TrEMBL record:
PANTHER family: ABC TRANSPORTER ATP-BINDING PROTEIN (PTHR42711), ABC TRANSPORTER RELATED (PTHR42711:SF4). Keywords: ATP-binding, Nucleotide-binding, Transport. This is ABC transporter related protein. It comes from Thermoanaerobacter italicus (strain DSM 9252 / Ab9). One of its GO terms (molecular function) is ATP hydrolysis activity. Pfam families: ABC_tran.
Length: 328
């Protein structure tokens, strides 16, 4: 069976206006502007089969959102081939729109002055769905997502972020799409709402055999949902395959985080490479499982150290190591 989504050797370059400081340069820019060209994605290739969830992973600016915009048809590729359900997504035919959905966590389709159920009725007209059937679907989805019927009737602007995101999903899934693009659907949400959304997506995929592309900065989303992952680095493929395969390729890594004084860090550095973490005076060491006892001995000899936390080879640690290797 042919994959539902095909991306082959796709590249996209943006032309960006360079704004220079000063009044004179501002006036000059009215007559002659300077531009630079930024390659957002370079020669990326992947496929998504029926009933598969592909996770797009990358640092900010790696090309994840550009990739979502390309495969969903919002922007056109400069090079390469993209096919979704056998069609060019950029042409956005009616048949394509009736089978595909896009959810962007930071962009809302909900009218803040209407209720979710009012928006459902509006979308029912757009997709030629019987309004009674649309309302039944919306209530069923709301129940799965843990959203009450009272919440469906409330003005959207009065809802919490999590409730609004659940409303976005109800609208986006109302026409029962078989291909879905999700760009950061759980961003900024609490743990319970994230879990409710993940469970809903798993059940929907199973029920409708849907093909899904998901971007998320939350590793739990990726590990819990994705059959395959595609890691982007500076617009290019860094890894494509299963999480299990990635873990088998990388050396078994452990990590210990701790807070320490400068003197303690200097002494520990005689035995292990100490790296700075994001917080002030927070550091970490990477090491193999065989070195665990040695690491514990070195750290326990230090009085000026606190908040020691050991971590196993979680996916985020493995991906972090992959990126560090790519930068060398």
């Amino acid at each position: 069976m042919q994959p539902k989504i095909i991306v082959k050797n796709v590249s996209k370059t943006y032309r960006v206006y360079i704004k220079e400081n000063g009044v004179v340069n501002t006036v000059k820019s009215f007559f002659k502007r300077r531009y630079e060209y930024i390659e957002a994605v370079k020669g990326i290739s992947f496929t998504v089969n029926q009933g598969e969830i592909l996770g797009l992973i990358g640092l900010n600016g790696a090309g994840k959102t550009t990739t979502i915009k390309l495969v969903s048809g919002i922007i056109k590729a400069d090079k390469g081939i993209i096919r979704v359900l056998g069609k060019d997504p950029f042409l956005r035919s009616k048949e394509y729109r009736n089978k595909v959905s896009l959810v962007m966590g930071q962009r809302s389709q909900l009218d803040p002055d209407l209720s979710i159920i009012d928006s459902v009725k509006l979308f029912a007209s757009i997709y030629s769905i019987d309004k009674r059937e649309a309302i039944l679907r919306a209530k069923s989805m709301a129940e799965e997502l843990g959203l009450s019927e009272i919440d469906l009737q409330k003005q959207v602007r009065t809802l919490s972020l999590g409730q609004r995101m659940k409303g976005e999903l109800i609208l986006s899934f109302l026409h029962l799409p078989v291909v879905i693009f999700l760009d950061e659907p759980t961003i900024g949400l609490d743990f319970f709402t994230q879990r409710a959304i993940r469970n809903y997506l798993k059940n929907y995929k199973k029920k409708y055999n849907a093909s899904i592309i998901l971007t998320s900065h939350y590793i739990t989303d990726i590990e819990d949902l994705c059959d395959n992952i595609y890691i982007l680095h500076k617009g290019q493929e860094l890894y494509y395959g299963t999480i299990e395969k990635l873990k088998s390729m990388m050396p078994n890594i452990r990590k210990v985080r701790f807070n320490a004084s400068n003197g303690a860090v200097e002494r520990i550095s005689k035995y292990y490479k100490v790296e700075e973490a994001s917080e002030e005076q927070e550091y970490f060491i990477r090491f193999s499982p065989e070195e665990t006892i040695n690491v514990m001995r070195v750290l326990s000899n230090e009085a000026e150290i606190s908040n020691i936390n050991f971590h196993d080879d979680n996916l985020d640690i493995i991906i972090e190591s992959l990126y560090k290797g790519a930068e060398k």
